[in-house]
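Dear colleague,

Thank you for sharing your sequence with our group. We've completed the structure prediction you requested, and as agreed, I am returning the results in plain text so they can be pasted directly into your records. Please verify that the sequence below matches your submission; if there's any discrepancy, let me know and we will rerun it promptly.
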Amino acid sequence: MLRISDTVKHLIIINVLFFIATSFVFGEVMYDWFSLWFPKNGNFQFWQLLTHMFMHGGLAHIGFNMFALWMFGTPVEQRLGSKKFLFIYFSAGLGALLFQLGFYYFNYLPLMEELLGSGLTESQILQMLKSNQISMDLSDVQLANLKEAFPIYNASMVGASGCIMGILAAFGMMNPNAELMMIFLPIPIKAKYFIPGIILLDVISAVTGQSFFSPSNTAYMAHVGGAVIGFIIMWYWKKNQFNDKRWN
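Please find the predicted structure tokens below.
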């Protein structure tokens, strides 16, 4: 059995403590304070940029993520050391939120522009998005735009998935011929094909809304962002492997 490395062990402990506090002690207060809310939402706080990486939405969510962290994080930490491992881990987490928030804004801003152009004020729009109650007569187009903007305005991100996707990308670059399998597709596939395939599915899911192997409320672009940042960091270190930035 693969022995767990120290940094991975500590990250798992922190995630589990957050999950216990959320599930059995503070409940919804934890989600309100430590999930990453859409920046236009009144619940948004700057510390959520970090704390959301330790929050999870349920037992299956944290169980799968912590298993992946142990499985892929341990060999990556053993190869790179704890400092570089943590650099990839948190850089991927930040990259994940930038990709996901960028995707949200890409969809949100045109909707707001149309709503403002239709004669509504920003305060009226935000009040309806916040309360999910229509307090005036609106056209079909206005209602459709509000309906589309509502899940974005009220979106909250939780989970270490973006961080772990960065670690998975690092693992794949170190072990391109390692054979991996999905729980729902028990066929061994080499990492150099498996990981890009997972990223492609996430992109398709983000664009179409069609979920393949994840819950429909998954932040797909966060997965993509984490993997891209992990790949870029490892590519840079590999490119400079003969100077002081080498990866081992």
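Summary note from our side: The CA atoms of residues 95 and 143 lie 33 Å apart.

Kind regards,
the structure core
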